[in-house]
Structure formats: structure tokens, C-alpha cells
TrEMBL record:
Pfam families: TraG-D_C. Keywords: Cell membrane, Membrane, Transmembrane, Transmembrane helix. It is found in: Cell membrane. Residues 32-148 form the TraD/TraG TraM recognition site domain. GO terms for cellular component: plasma membrane. The keyword Cell membrane applies. This is TraG/TraD domain protein. It is a multi-pass membrane protein.
Length: 222
């Protein structure tokens, strides 16, 4: 399903933007945001690095959510760095994974600090001296990355310095009253398991925004 989607969405977007789609105009193009939580559980997508680098210009964005960098490395051994480099924004919420801590320490960069040394000799002819040395150190060491507050996050935006800030409090969101904690709550979402994937898709899709295609068109794209 995801493989077909990664093929069909860019193709349809190109047709709309180029004025070749039979029913949609360029102004009809909607932004599509894919939130891939627990990304590692999806398995390996064919040509995913190429897809990630090309969909942005077609009004498609992809959020990859993982627990640790090791999950990406296990799936995309030679391409994981390319995947990270294609992400304009990285958000670190916390982990116990050593590789992840080292990576975000490296991404935070260096800082310059002044070290003042003072020495003094006591006695009848005592003396003292003072020196100031400029050195570089990691802006955030791996240990400091690991110890950010549970209510804090590190945000890495392309071509910007790392930003350390508080996480969003969901209870301050304007629609927080719609949250639910248990099946007894009025807003509790009750998942209905359909007999087939197509039935489930059909029950949850807005048919007014469906763009019809055929198997022949999908094969032509591939």
C-alpha cells in the first residue's frame, strides 16, 4: 500500500501542477502530510531515499518517528545518513541509545570558551600569575544530550543553530477538551476492525476528495 502511494501521489501531483490532470487545476492541489509513527515497524520501503528527496516540491511532507538511530541503520545501512540529511527539521525528545546521543551531540556543533588559570606561590618572595586560554568544546556533550529535562526537546532546523525549548503541553491546546483517557470518556475513539483493508479504507476516506486511477496508470508510473 505505501509503495503504491509513494509512486502515485508524486505522479498525480505532477499532473495537477503541470495542468495535465483531467479534473483538477493547480489551485486544487492539497498538501499531504504523512506521519509515520514507529517508522521502523513498517519495514524497508523501496527507493525511499529518492522519494524523500523529491516529494517536498510536490506538496508532500513526511514525518519519520523513531525511538533510536539504530532502527534506521538496521533498515537503511548505507542510506540512513542521506535520510537524515533530507529532513529539514530534526526533533530530539530523549533516548537511552548511545549512537543517538553521539549523533545529536555532533549535530549541535562546537562552542568557544575561555579558560582562566590562576597560580600563586606563597613565601617571602611569593608570586602569582594568571593566564586565559581559548578552547573549543562540544556545545552539548553526549552526556548532556542524555540529561535534558523530560519536559525539554532539542530542535535542529536546517542552517540554524540548535534550539532547546520546552515540549508542548497538550492540555494547553485549544482543543484539549476533546482528549480522552478511557473508554468511559465521551470522546473515546472506538476502532472498528473491518473484514478487509479495502473496507477499512472505504469507511474512513472522504470520497469527495478521491482521485480515481486505474491499475494500468499505476503500472505505467512504476
Amino acid at each position: 500500500m505505501f509503495t503504491m502511494m509513494f509512486r502515485q501521489l508524486p505522479q498525480t501531483a505532477d499532473e495537477i501542477l503541470q495542468g495535465l490532470h483531467p479534473t483538477c487545476k493547480p489551485t486544487d492541489l492539497l498538501h499531504i502530510r504523512l506521519i509515520l509513527d514507529e517508522f521502523a515497524n513498517f519495514g524497508r520501503f523501496p527507493n525511499f531515499t529518492e522519494t524523500l528527496s523529491s516529494v517536498r516540491s510536490r506538496e508532500i511532507s513526511i514525518d519519520i518517528i523513531i525511538q533510536a538511530i539504530s532502527q534506521i541503520k538496521s533498515l537503511y545501512k548505507d542510506q540512513w545518513e542521506t535520510i537524515f540529511n533530507n529532513c529539514a527539521t530534526l526533533i530530539y525528545l530523549g533516548t537511552n541509545d548511545k549512537d543517538t546521543m553521539n549523533y545529536f551531540s555532533m549535530r549541535a556543533g562546537k562552542q568557544t570558551i575561555n579558560v582562566k588559570n590562576h597560580s600563586q606561590t606563597r613565601g617571602t618572595q611569593g608570586s602569582s600569575s594568571q593566564s586565559i586560554q581559548t578552547i573549543q568544546r562540544d556545545l552539548l556533550t553526549p552526556d548532556e544530550v542524555a540529561r535534558i529535562g523530560v519536559d525539554e526537546a532539542l530542535v535542529f532546523i536546517s542552517k540554524q543553530n540548535v534550539f532547546r525549548d520546552k515540549k508542548t503541553n497538550v492540555f494547553q491546546h485549544p482543543r484539549s477538551k476533546e482528549l480522552a483517557n478511557s473508554p468511559e470518556d465521551e470522546n473515546w475513539y472506538r476502532y472498528i476492525r473491518s473484514m478487509s483493508d479495502m473496507d477499512e479504507w472505504d469507511a474512513n476516506v472522504n470520497h469527495e476528495r478521491v482521485i480515481e486511477t486505474t491499475a494500468a496508470e499505476v503500472l505505467r508510473v512504476s
